Amino acid sequence: MAERLGETAFDYIIVGGGAAGAVLASRLSEDPNLQVALVEAGPDTPPDNVPEDILDSYPIVAYFNSSYHWQNIKVHLNNPISSDVLPRTYEQAKVMGGGTSINGQFAFRGLPWDYDEWAEGGARGWDWNGVLPYFRKLETDLDYGTSDLHGGSGPLPLRRIPKDEWSPIAKATASVLDKRGVENIEDHNGIFRDGYFPMTINNVDGKRVSAAVAYLNRYVRTRPNLKVLASTEMNSIVFDGHKASGIEVTDGAGHKLLKGQEIIISAGALQSPAILMRSGIGPADHLKQMGIDVRADRKGVGQNLQDHPMVALAGFLPRKSRLPKSMRRHIQMGYRYSSELADTNPGDMFILPSNRAAWHPLGKRLASIIVCVNRPYSTGEVKLRHADPAHGPDVNFRQLSDERDLKRLEDGMHRLFAMVDDPALSSAIGEIFPATFSERVRELGAVSRKNWFLTSLAAGVMECGPLARKLMIENAIVPDIDVQALRGSSNVLRSWIIENACGSWHASGTCKIGDKQDPMAVVDADGRVVGVDGLRVVDASIMPSVISGNTMLTTIMAAEKIADSIKEGHRR
Questions:
Q1: Are residues 487 and 357 part of one domain?
Q2: CATH number at residue 358
Q3: Is position 386 within any domain?
Q4: Is residue 380 one of the residues assigned to a domain?
């Protein structure tokens, strides 16, 4: 029998302390009449003890720190599931602040028509005019202050990286675009034309400002009506009939029962649908196969999974083009463009130059230029592998299953070829080769003395001259393919993209907002799960479609919006 945690019955129990959960905990506990619990499976990052790798402007170190990750997440990306295709690692944050504590610190709103399409599809109140007040509410824009488009007093400080602080590769890329007549639009969150721009980041004075730092500050944490429970894993939702009434958790002291008037799941687009399905909410046939009693037959749970697929070119950096020691950030600018492919939206593609590939000696000598499908149409699914939460979900993104996504990456690669041929870039980058994000690259991304030593040897070889670099690239880095092969054959390029496209770690859409009459809708416009009482989902999973950009700001916005709705309901 689970032990009750004290005798406290909470009004709201929030499961997950990430981009949505931290916001909900902060905003709901503003009402002193509400008792709020925030449950996070990973370690806490209290204001006076945020780890240095999380604070770092160079995000790759924290990103590859496995102590901040779920260890049971493996996914299929482009290939159909079969016995000879192994799933890949897909980093999902298990730490207070969630992905905002380990991601690239890029703050994108997406484009107005993203949200207008949501509303047209049944997400009433989630059109651009409906969400803009919450984008303004969440931010303190350090460049534009308070205006019709920006906020000047929100918890999350945002700023843009001035052009004179851009890296050599960012400046070279901008020179290429300038010659082609591409506009510097300055503010990609307020000007929605195509163009290049300084990246907006949640980083001030060289320090990351995660959702945990912004929303769970010292003042918030002293509220007597807020209880933060870190390193506490949720095992199951407890129901009283069709109403969620609590959760069973495990912490360092054992199993406990937390009772709540309402449970809010904010565990992310891979974990949240799995939690619902283990609770009997999801596609009835699949639940029966897993031996789970069906509480609510919701066919959309776990469906509609989306991410932004991307591929890249990499190149050797001569000394003049490497990041100076004083510069930690490796990405300062981006370029949004329209593919103009039939049945796609404007601003549907994105190019991103990076002046450093990894933390280690070899990574410091490599640049990359990424092309990404900013608004994808392929969808996958999340299912259960086992009813026991110790087993991670069964995830298949089915990237590039929609021909529009594959065609746009093919076109995007040809755009990269043309860009690196331009003297402004070709004089800044040496040998160009196709970039891959293999398991070996991922393993080398972890900070360790062994990896430093191995990559130091490789870096030494690369410094020995063009022939040594050619041999290293052809025999060790990408032994199976070269740029000329990709440029020379559309079939080779297409096959390489299918094999090597990776996601952007923006999993979304698996518990989408919609009309209650829509059989694929999982939650209503206020995040309430259709078919049961006392249960909401608020995180990236509720997006009807992934937005045209990184998902952090949209997830924070959604939590701000639903928190307001919840508090308004109490006031009424």
A1: yes
A2: 3.30.410.40
A3: no
A4: no
Q: What is the CA radius of gyration of the chain?
A: 23
Cβ(278)–Cβ(389) under 8 Å? Answer: yes
Residue with the two structure tokens 């959604």: 558
Whether 76 is catalytic is no
User: Could you tell me the two tokens for 374?
Assistant: 């900013």
Question: Considering the domain boundaries, does residue 350 fall inside one?
Answer: yes
Return the closest-CA partner of residue 535 out of 113, 170, 244, 188: 244
Q: What percent of the chain lies above the pLDDT cut of 70? A: 97
Runs of H (alpha helix) within 344-422: 403-421
Encoded tokens for 469: 């670099």
Q: What pLDDT shows up at residue 481?
A: 86
DSSP assigned state of 395: E
Query: Encoding tokens for residue 538?
Result: 């608020």
Three-class DSSP labels, 249-280:
EEECCEEEEEEEEEEEECCCCCHHHHHHHHCC
Quick count: other Cβ atoms within 10 Å of Cβ 4?
13
Provide the token pair at 497: 């993209």
Check: CB of residue 263 under 8 Å from CB of residue 11: no
Please report the DSSP string for 185-250 in residue order: -S-TTT--SSEEEEPEESEETTEE--HHHHHS-HHHHT-TTEEEE-S-EEEEEEEETTEEEEEEEE
Strand ranges in 394-483 using DSSP code E only, listed in sequence order: 394-396, 432-435
Asked whether the beta carbons of 236 and 482 are under 8 A apart, the reply is: no
Same domain, 421 and 452: yes
Q: Which residue segment(s) compose the domain that 49 sits in?
A: 3-79+93-156+207-305+507-571
Q: How many helices (H) and strands (E) does the chain have?
A: 18, 25
Q: Which residues does residue 336 pair with via DSSP β-bridges, in sequence order?
A: 195, 350
On the question of pLDDT at 83 being above 80, the answer is no
How confident is residue 79, by pLDDT bands cut at 50, 70 and 90?
low
Cβ(244)–Cβ(281) below 8 Å: no
Same domain, 244 and 298: yes
Number of domains in the chain: 2
Looking at 69, 330, 506, 570, which residue is catalytic?
Answer: 506
Mean pLDDT, rounded, for 472-482: 85
How many other CB atoms are there within 10 angstroms of residue 420's CB atom? 20
Q: 542: domain CATH number?
A: 3.50.50.60
Give mean pLDDT, residues 318-340.
94
Q: How far is CA 258 from CA 5, 204, 252, 291, 523, in A?
A: 6, 37, 15, 25, 23
Q: 419 and 360 in one domain?
A: yes
- Residue 430 is encoded by which pair of tokens? 């040496």
